[in-house]
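User: Could you check the structure of this?
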Amino acid sequence: MAESLAARLRGLPFEVRQYLLITGNYWAFTLTDGALRMLVVLHFHQLGYSPLEVALLFLFYEAFGVVTNLVGGWLGARLGLNRTMNMGLGLQIVALAMLMVPAAALTVPWVMAAQALSGIAKDLNKMSAKSAVKVLVPKESASAQSALYRWVAILTGSKNSLKGAGFFLGGLLLTLIGFRGAVIAMALMLVAVLVMSLLRLKADLGRQKRKPKFSEVFSKSRAINVLSAARLCLFASRDVWFVVALPVFLYDQHGWSHWTVGGLLAIWVIGYGGVQTQAPRLTSLIRGGARMTTASWALALAGLPALLALLPLAEVGWLVTGLLAFGVLFAINSSWHSYLIVHYARADGVSMDVGFYYMANAMGRLLGTLLSGWGYQVYGLTACLWISAALVAASALMALALPRDPVSHAAANDESSKLDNR
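Assistant: Sure, the predicted structure tokens are below.
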């Protein structure tokens, strides 16, 4: 049976085989990334860290992600996406190795430094995977844009399902084998994945023939700039209550165990990833072009955290139901955004446009993480939900400045890129 499967894989088109390899690479990385986040939140809160202190452990993780996406897109264009993806895997292994030290050595500066490396690794890996999809989708297909949306949705949705599994894995491993044992197990898995990637992933994937200047990392496209600002607000709206406030609230106020908290967040992210894979069907329910689709789905999302803030959070059933509903609408918004950026990006230099966009994504996560720890510690979960609603509403307003037709804009963007390169 193994031989039959190998023969089938060899019979697939080269682009599909590379896409599967990139997706598998991305899956493995994301599994460890989600598990590590849950390990750090629960382990250090158990050690007596306040919610704000736990949030600060992720400060460098998110802050270095901002820089990495800018530099990573430029490196991908110069070195090739295969190399930046493998660099991300290698750095994650180093970050995990830093956390294998005895418990007494796990000081705040040390953990923040390890999280900084992990943040760099995560964004190198994600930028490489998302950019590679645009390179690999067959250009001769009459339905190339439909195929691009499907490929992006599958990659993004499946990745988030694995991230959810990582949340559950992190809570479970912390219960079964402790913090250090969990970190060692994840590092060994990534070493095997890195070896496979080095052997199989095509060299020079997505590398530009012309060496771009570093100043070109800042997008000149109005559509990409607007979409990036909307993305920043969108992801800040999720993390302001999801990263620190919700896990700590369930642990402190409702007495949930580590693996129960991890299990709920895992179910949320797994379901969120599943919805993302179906986003191409769901976004078609709203007609009116990119601008109206983006703004409408964002406005629908903004009402949910506002409604939750008005409900009694002591009733955990309301909170869980609202959490699941938020996940469905957030997944549709996120997947549609992910398609638009890959589509708006220049064919030559895709990693730089995608890198700039995910720089804004990382800034949103950084803002949301800090607001999550501070807002919950000072005002509680209800305040975090109100902040979330305001951020999504801001994202919807920004979307009104997008071009109505993404296809014509993408063609103009590619033509402008060709003229600039002459």
